[in-house]
TrEMBL record, chain A:
GO cellular component: plasma membrane
Family classification: Belongs to the binding-protein-dependent transport system permease family. LivHM subfamily.
BP-aspect Gene Ontology terms: D-alanine transmembrane transport; L-alanine transport; L-isoleucine import across plasma membrane
Protein name, per record: Branched-chain amino acid ABC transporter permease
Residue ranges crossing the lipid bilayer per the database entry: 18-38, 50-74, 94-113, 189-207, 227-252, 264-282
Entry keywords, A to Z: Amino-acid transport, Cell inner membrane, Cell membrane, Membrane, Transmembrane, Transmembrane helix, Transport
Keyword Cell inner membrane listed: yes
Membrane topology: Multi-pass membrane protein
Domain of life: Bacteria
From TrEMBL, chain B:
Molecular function (Gene Ontology), one example: ATP hydrolysis activity
Biological-process GO terms, alphabetical: L-amino acid transport
Transport keyword on record: yes
The protein's name: ABC transporter ATP-binding protein
UniProtKB/TrEMBL annotation, chain C:
Organism: Pseudaestuariivita atlantica
GO cellular component: plasma membrane
InterPro entries assigned: ABC_transp_permease, LivM-like
An annotated Gene Ontology molecular function: branched-chain amino acid transmembrane transporter activity
Major localisation: membrane
Membrane topology: Multi-pass membrane protein
CDD domains: TM_PBP1_LivM_like
Domain of life, source organism: Bacteria
Record keywords: Cell membrane, Membrane, Transmembrane, Transmembrane helix
Keyword Nuclease among UniProt keywords: no
Any Pfam family matching the protein: BPD_transp_2
This protein's name: Branched-chain amino acid ABC transporter permease
Amino acid sequence: MEYVAQQVINALSFGAEYALLALGLAIVFSVMGLVNFAHGEVIAVGGYTMVAFAALVTANPLIIIVGAVAATAMTSVALERVAFRPVRYADPTTGLLTAFGVSIVLQNLFLLFISPRPIAVTSLYFLDAPVMLFGVQISSLQIFESVTTVVVIVGLVLFLQKTTLGLAMRAASLDFEMVRLTGIRANRVFALAFLISGLLAGLASVFIMARRGSVDPHFGFNPVLKAFVACVVGGFGSLPGAVLGGFLLGAVEVAMLVLLPQDYGGLKDAFVFGIIALVLVWRPDGILSPAREKGDKQ
Amino acid sequence: MLDIRDLHVFHGPIEAVHGISLSVGAGQCVALLGPNGAGKTSTISAICGVAQSSGTIALEGADLSKASVEDRVRSGIAVSPEGRRIFSNLSVEANLRIGAGVRPDRENVARDIANWFETFPILGERRTQPGGTLSGGEQQMLAIARALMSRPKILLLDEPSLGLAPRIVAQVFQMIDRLRSEGMTILLVEQNARQALKISDYGYLLNNGRIQAEGTPADLGGSKDMMAKLTGLG
Amino acid sequence: MTLTQSQKRGFFGACMLAAILIAIGVVTTFFASNYQLRLVYSAFVNLIVVLGLQVFMGNSRLTNLSHSAFMGIGAYAAAICVTPVAMKQIALPDAPWGLNAFALDPVTSAIIALIVTGIVSLAVGVFIVRMTGTGATIASLAVLVIVHSIFLYRTDIFKGNQAFFGIPQVFSLTSIVILAVVVVFIVRGFRESPWGVMLRASADDETGAAAMGVNVRRLRLIAWVLSGLILATAGIAYAYFLGTISARPFYFNHVFLTLAMLIFGGMRTVTGAVLGTFAISFGLEIVRWLETGPKVIGINLPELLGLSGIMLGLVIVLTMALRPVGVMGDREIEEVFSKR
């Protein structure tokens, strides 16, 4: 019983992390149809910022966390300006390939100017402490993660439903030109989407760092792959889909760890991606994909 | 109010409008008529800045032809586009709020929304429903209301009667007539020439990207030959 | 068989490309050092990969990210068949199904490798071609990850990241040049074939093409499987020359490298694939030399690890921003010359 409870909590906290990651991708995709592969490198910027703050500024974890989130938010907005603005209205493939390019450039910049080797940050270890909750031993990190994700989702929902800019972002996912025709500036909507995406990347980077303890140029690669999978399963461009996909992926991963015999552990990714592929066969555009009409008029 | 000189509109390599000039005086309702493919919607798109064009587009004497889409709307142009383009995933009320996205005066926005719900009780009843669930006529009303939420100087109406039942069409034209009588400046694009001319002060007849004729409704509607052209049979 | 006007021009264009490839081969054979010869050989392998990628991406306009995996399948399948039993007993002592108890000649092995890759790509393709733009791309990414983790996991068959050695080195530069020339003709032939023409038309207007009775999925599947076979060919050529393979070169780095080549040259044309491959292969070699921190006019440059990656990424970003259709755009080589 205890074992089951533990695994359920594991699945939920993995799911929470994936949902956080997937939302960062989905919010940009929903507004501009861009599959932002460079999201992982934004997360890595968060990791390196923590290194820099811990080494040069302070050991106060709160300041380190705030610094990392601020850095990822700024990086994300800067990337929109520099790299993604020229391909803003281009077809999705052009955007995707641009994002690949940006991702490769950033990864190699880390390699060139920082280090190819992992750098450790120890100031966040305290986040990951064992806690007893209703007789089940879990990690405090899992609680932080789940709570943060819930807060983020609630905040995002409120923002998207209550504020004009939030409404405009939802409208933009359907008909961006019409949003411009109401006078709301496209630049602001895009910048905002990337800002939110960057904030989410920052939060994710904190949790990844707390778990892993070090950062290297490939810091964001695996997380962003997972985020992709979550988005695809949920339906690309759908924010509820991203959340659903994230939790589903968490559940599948934990189930694989539990159910697969020990010596099949190396095939976990293959199974996870295989299940993803099956979901796509069943619903080629994901479970909660927003309806899109095909036709000559955009 | 709105003065257009020598407007050419391009869709990629194709020129859809070949140098037209037209003007809309303050408080006037001007009809832009013509058959399918005449270049009416291209003209509207060019005025809004979403189509590539050359020539001058001046609003109250200020040239907007180099301005961005957003700046044009901010300087006083609003559009109810062809196909209405309601944000179908958002509530009726949210559609109106986005329409007022450029306005800083929150209280007045709320009051304007309340006024629209009074004018169109059906929109009020469905304020929380997604815009996509409205009927065609209701969507058209919403599209016009959304455009007017920005308190524009001029309202561009692109084919407001398209695809609507005759009874609803009459309602839409009634509404436009009322806006005009309240002093709104309107550029009305229509295929439905007879109805449009009834509520217009002046009309232009567009065909194959050129202005074929212009004049008061009496001038345009007078000759049989002209009416044949207007209905697209000439 | 009568050829259409564009097919005749296509044949002519393919001949011009073939002449260029042969010229590069001849110059390399006579003037290059051993090290340079290996570079040119790997450029030719990448050329075949990029051509394989072009067949699918250029005609269907869907982005594929799994191509390096298919190259890997071809390479491993051929390697397992062709490697002598004595070698395999050392390299793969625990291989199941008697995989280490037989050896075939290189031609039979290559044919088996083509058949195996063809079957796998058909099985995957059936699903891929049903998806729309982004979905297909992500699904292909999933294929890449799945195949790679199988390579890594079944060390008893593939040796994972360790070297699978002992493959007979039966290929020379001459063989790969001939192979590349043949592939150029196949790829250009497909582009101008009724299938290729219809597929390109459907990419521009899927709804319209479907309305005209074009079975888009079937056409995409044909292009996908053809692409898989060409990629397998590249993998076989790679294994037959080096004699050693491992899982690492069939993963993300190679995916990006070859994708950058195709994008830079222009994915819509065969000429673009050829141009992009050689431009980036040779460009990168210069950058790699800078990376090692060489001495230039008496000044010691610092070591710049990562510079080649930055350049590669920049090439993609700048191409997308400034000329998304690549250098060649919609023009094939013969059109460049005939318009002068």
